[in-house]
Structures are given as C-alpha cells and as structure tokens.
Amino acid sequence: MERHAMREEAEPVIAIWAAASPFLPAALRTLDDAGVPYVVLPDEPGAPGLDRAADAEALVVGGAEVSRTLLSSLPRLRLVVRAGVGVDRIDLEAATELGVLVANVPDYATDEVADHAVLLMLAAVRRLAHFQASTRADWVTVDRPPVMRLRGSRLGIVGLGRIGTATAERARALGMDVVAHDPYVGADAFARAGAAGVSLDELLAGSDVISLHAPLTADSHHLLGRAAFARMRRSPVVVNTARGGLVDTAALTEALDAGVVRAAGLDVLEDEHDVARHAALLGRADVVVTPHVAWYSQGSEQQLGASAARIALDFVRQGVRPPVLNPVR
C-alpha cells in the first residue's frame, strides 16, 4: 500500500512520540518557530491520546517501538524520523510495505560517542573501578591487578562509520595501532580512519581492545557471543557504545570469569528496561558501565531535537525527502 501526495485540505501535522525524551524542548522550539501544528504523544503505546496523531504526516520518535500495528493506525503517515541513529526498534519491513519513509539523525553526537568510547576504554584498561574502590583502603598495600600499556597496543574497531572513524582518530593520538572490520565501506574509509582493514576473525584474534560501532541487525545480534570470545587470543578489553544486543551478556560474563576478556566498558546492555538481570555483570570491578549516555552533552541534545524536528518540518512543508533507511520510492 503506497501513500502519496501531501493533503491540501489542512495544515500538515507532526506527531512527536517522545514526551519524556530530553531532546523534546529543542524539537518543540523548532516547530514553534515554524508555526507548524504538532502533537506530543504519551510514551506508552496504546495509551489514551494516540488517536490525536491520526492526521500526522510525520512522526518523530525517540526510543519507542514503532510496530506494524502503530504504523497501520496512522493512515496519513508518510515519514518516521528516529531522533537518534539506531532504527532497530522500528519495523522497517512494515514501513516499506506501507510506503512510509524512515530517516534518522546520524551525525548529532559523533564526537560525544567517540569520546565516551575512549573514556570507557581508558577506564577499563586502567582498572578505574578497582583502583577507585581501593582508595578507601590502605594505599600502601593496594592490590595491583595487571594493567596493559596502551601505547603500542592494538585497537580493533567493528563498524567504521562516523563514530568508528572518530574513535580511530582518538586512539591513534594515544599511540595505538588501529585495525577495523566493516564489509560495507570501501578502502577510502579505512584510509580516512588510518586503520588497516582486517577480517572479523583477524580482529578478534589480534586486538588488545575491541570497540563496537556497528548497527544492531538480525545478522549482528550477539556478534560477540561464545563463538567470538573463543576466537580471542590476547585477553582484550571489550568496549560497547553501540547497541546492547551486539554482545551476549551471559557469554561476556563467562569470558571475564575465564580471563578470556580482560575487562569491559559498556554504555549499552541487552534489555535496558530490566537492568536487574545484569546484576552479575554490573557489580564487577573489571567492568565499567554507564547508563546509555555516550551520546549526551547539552550541545548534542539540542542538536538532536532541532535536527529531527527540522527533517520532519522540511518534509511536510516543502516536500524535502531526507536520506532514508528503507527502500520506498
């Protein structure tokens, strides 16, 4: 089912499904300045008020799940804008079948996430959690677990997009050798990042630090699972600022227990709505965890809201088609 021209009988309507999202004020300022009608929807799917979006032509979402049912309930919808990068919670197949474009905001926090990846790498490599806890004991007899020298070590980056490239640049400034795996980019991308292209097996076996910057798809789910950990040869530090589902949490815990993985720095986890299930991981001295905030700064928050709203606004007001992530003509 294809959805065609913008209706002429009424003003375009934009719906924002992100009532509790921190980028909301910046998005609303952008829409208010433009004078376009909009509606802010409640965060819970099926909650009272969703019917107010029945005339929406564009939907801006934060982390909400955009299902086939939701898409089918909005007969005028022609664009979903994910305020962020990952679109794994949007049913792309359904959107494509319904003629709904799906776009994202891929460049709002490149530096923030790359900075955070390096922060987690340094904290994990330098055993920050262990030594911070040690300050409450005798400084003379402090236990000193093995700490790897960073200069001259090898960073393996999985996913050489904007953030992976920015992380590579920072790592090279620290004196690290950088390799990368990404089957979806050309040789020029590796040259820009100053990274040698390698197979995933080579990266797993030969890296001292492994940093994930890939999208979550059916193919990349549990990219680091028991089989991948078994191929690691240098007891690497694992860093994940991308998507929690890239790492099998149970397998990571086993790898840490066995010394197959030296330490981990994580900003994302599987099923972040049920953090208690990760208690065995969160309490470890060899794991540094932050609550999915790698993207955050005041500047990135404002840029995200304004950019997402502007994409929707330009589409409904001027017919400007943004770069999309699904094959709708």
UniProtKB/TrEMBL annotation:
PROSITE patterns: D_2_HYDROXYACID_DH_1 (PS00065), D_2_HYDROXYACID_DH_2 (PS00670), D_2_HYDROXYACID_DH_3 (PS00671). The lineage of its organism: Bacteria, Bacillati, Actinomycetota, Actinomycetes, Jiangellales. InterPro entries: CtBP, D-iso_2-hydroxyacid_DH_PdxB, D-isomer_2_OHA_DH_cat_dom, D-isomer_DH_CS, D-isomer_DH_CS1, D-isomer_DH_NAD-bd, NAD(P)-bd_dom_sf. Belongs to the D-isomer specific 2-hydroxyacid dehydrogenase family. Keywords: NAD, Oxidoreductase. The keyword Oxidoreductase applies. Pfam families: 2-Hacid_dh (PF00389), 2-Hacid_dh_C (PF02826). The keyword Oxidoreductase applies. This is D-3-phosphoglycerate dehydrogenase. Residues 119-294 form the D-isomer specific 2-hydroxyacid dehydrogenase NAD-binding domain. It comes from the Bacteria. Residues 27-318 form the D-isomer specific 2-hydroxyacid dehydrogenase catalytic domain. GO terms for molecular function: NAD binding; oxidoreductase activity, acting on the CH-OH group of donors, NAD or NADP as acceptor; transcription corepressor activity.
